[in-house]
Amino acid sequence: MSEEVFISPRKHGRIAVLISGRGSNFTRIHDAVRDGRIDAEIGLVFSNREGAAGLEIARERGLETIFLNPRLYPEKEDYDREILREIRKRGIDLVCLAGYMKVLCPMFCREYRNRAMNIHPALLPAFPGLNVQRGAIDWGVRVSGCTVHFVAPEVDRGPIILQAAVPVLPDDTEETLAARILVEEHKIYPEAVRLYFEGRLEVRGRRVRIRD
Ligand code: GRF
Asked: Is the model's pTM score more than 0.85?
């Protein structure tokens, strides 16, 4: 059986960023768009939280924003279907989850297979899920870091695109470790998006090759 191969499109793309909070990763992706490192535009910044600080930053930067109240959608699938509708309407090529604190349902993940990325503040597959810095410190690992990966229905399990390692220091608290990891997140997330629209990400099964 021949293996399915996906190669990211080389094009001027349209990005939707999904956030729930401060939006520092979104901001770095937008910085890279603005200074021409990423050949794309941000067509939508979406949040499930009305007060997300990142939404305010997006408005100040003149980007289109949408907040949808999840409480108005008792069925999670309906909520995600609504997001999909907004994304489709805008011809979005790539969805970037950047501190988006809701799990996308399988229907969304299937439609945006190889077209949605997430950033996670640990070296996956170690420490998936929440409270990951606490987990890394309590486990006693010497090295943690961050991972940009494609989104799959299994949370934090999609093909890995880029990772950066960060030492865990003896006196680290969750906050100091998170801050050191965030510095690396801000480098690898824009880099992964850049590679995507340069047509350089090749996905075979779990493995992502970066083409020259
Ligand atoms: C980041 O640490 C990211 O890895 C995690 O949530 C945090 C979001 O931060 N998924 P920000 O909203 O991008 O500042």
From this structure: yes
